Amino acid sequence: MKTQDIVKLLRQSGLLISSKIQKNDNIAGVADNSRKVKKGNVFVAIKGFTVDGNDYIKSAILQGANLLVSEKNHKKMIFGETGYIRVKDARKALSLIAAYRYGFPSKKLKIIGVTGTKGKTTTVHIIHHIMQTLGYKVGMVSSIKAVIKNREYDTGAHVTNPGVIEIQKLLSEMVRAGCEYAVLEVSSHGIDQERISGIQFEVTVLTNIYPEHLDYHKTFKNYKQVKMKFIKSGKHQVISPKKTNLNILPGEFNNINVEASIKAVSHFGISKNKALTTLSAFKLPEGRLEELVENQPFRVVIDFAHTPDSLEKALKYLRKETSGRLISVFGCAGERDRFKRPIMGGISAKLADISIITSEDPRSENINQIIDSISDGAISCKAREFTLQNYKAVLRNCDTKFGNSKFIKIPDRKKAIEFAITKVAQKDDTVAFFGKGHEKTMNLDGIHETPWSDIEVVREYIKKLI
């Protein structure tokens, strides 16, 4: 890859505004983070949601970048023989350069993209399972992991789509491994930020659309437009049904995902009956209605539900499956949709006997204010608050069927889990932990990702109990 090749590529795409190239250097790689720049790289300066890559141009050049791409005019600050290209859209330019760097791998694969407010991850895993079981050479990228042949790759914390460069690299790995198909989980952020720009989709799947990420998209209308823009880009389009008669996986919502998956793979000649025969061996992805069994006398479930609709559906399913009390442990993320907080508090109050309201990635927000907002919804549904001081007396009589739903506020998630497992849960109860699911970190200050796993912490306290 040469400097002039990139200029030509951007000119042909209509993105080029101007260029200042001293030498036709070899470009060893591409980076959009100045800390990851290596000698001979092209650095694409992206203006992000909170950080502007244009502020780190000098750092990138000092790290060894020999070509800069930006929407801004930086001609006066270019050092020595560093090349400079100005473009109309830096995000699209990054996607195009990254695809070029890895040989446009999406053109060598038939790609299925799955988007939606919820159910994306499960649907991606179902599609991949069906195709792989039936002998198709298929790779997968979800928010949990990437799978290429028998190798698994971590796709990072708190992202549905890996970055542009990472996606193209993974697709190129699939091509090298002999894959002919790929299944990708696609988020509204990934679509809007051009992370999938340049990828050609054979099939696009929409699982559902509910209000979400309005902190970013501002309105539900904008959010829907982003999703539909992606769906319309596919050669074949699949829209999930709202109901199903299938009863293969736990919860109707998961069986609706099965229906969508079957429709998606049908475009590659897989019949419904063949697809269904593979699902007897399918296991839900990590952190999706995942049961932890350690000989404890009550049921323990980990689920990623973090929206009102997903929380409601999970609790309704668990309500039917529980002979004792249903205990819900959850929070709401900071710097994200504030409107959903009281709604989720109300949902838990209506469907769970006991709600333990705690942290879930508070980021830079005050955790107590987040919890108070959730609690307002529980109170509006006539749930009564209790404390660590009086919990024994309060929990003797707790049953939503008689309007006796209770809630407690415990900001520390680890202490909330300990309380639920060691102090509250009894024989025949179900205790469900929502919001974190498979995630391996928690953001407590808006900057740092602290190691965290609901699964590990919950298992730790179950083992202490037994």
From TrEMBL:
Main location: cytoplasm
Gene Ontology molecular functions: ATP binding; magnesium ion binding; tetrahydrofolylpolyglutamate synthase activity
UniProt PTM comment: Carboxylation is probably crucial for Mg(2+) binding and, consequently, for the gamma-phosphate positioning of ATP.
Xref: InterPro entries: Folylpolyglutamate_synth_CS, Mur-like_cat_sf, Mur_ligase_C, Mur_ligase_C_dom_sf, Mur_ligase_cen, Mur_ligase_N, MurE/MurF_N, UDP-N-AcMur-Glu-dNH2Pim_ligase
Domain spans labelled Mur ligase central: 114-239
Gene Ontology biological process: cell division; cell wall organization; peptidoglycan biosynthetic process; regulation of cell shape
Residues the record lists as binding UDP-N-acetyl-alpha-D-muramoyl-L-alanyl-D-glutamate: 34, 187, 193, 195
Residue ranges constituting the Mur ligase N-terminal catalytic domain according to the UniProt record: 27-102
Catalytic class of the enzyme: ligase
Residues holding ATP: 116-122
Keyword terms, alphabetized: ATP-binding, Cell cycle, Cell division, Cell shape, Cell wall biogenesis/degradation, Cytoplasm, Ligase, Magnesium, Nucleotide-binding, Peptidoglycan synthesis
EC number: 6.3.2.-
Pfam families, per database record: Mur_ligase, Mur_ligase_C, Mur_ligase_M
Location in the cell: Cytoplasm
Highest taxon in the source lineage: Bacteria
SUPFAM superfamilies: MurD-like peptide ligases, catalytic domain, MurD-like peptide ligases, peptide-binding domain, MurE/MurF N-terminal domain
PROSITE patterns registered for this protein in UniProt: FOLYLPOLYGLU_SYNT_1
PANTHER family: MUR LIGASE FAMILY MEMBER, UDP-N-ACETYLMURAMOYL-L-ALANYL-D-GLUTAMATE--2,6-DIAMINOPIMELATE LIGASE MURE HOMOLOG, CHLOROPLASTIC
Function: Catalyzes the addition of an amino acid to the nucleotide precursor UDP-N-acetylmuramoyl-L-alanyl-D-glutamate (UMAG) in the biosynthesis of bacterial cell-wall peptidoglycan.
Family: Belongs to the MurCDEF family. MurE subfamily.
Name of the protein in question: UDP-N-acetylmuramyl-tripeptide synthetase
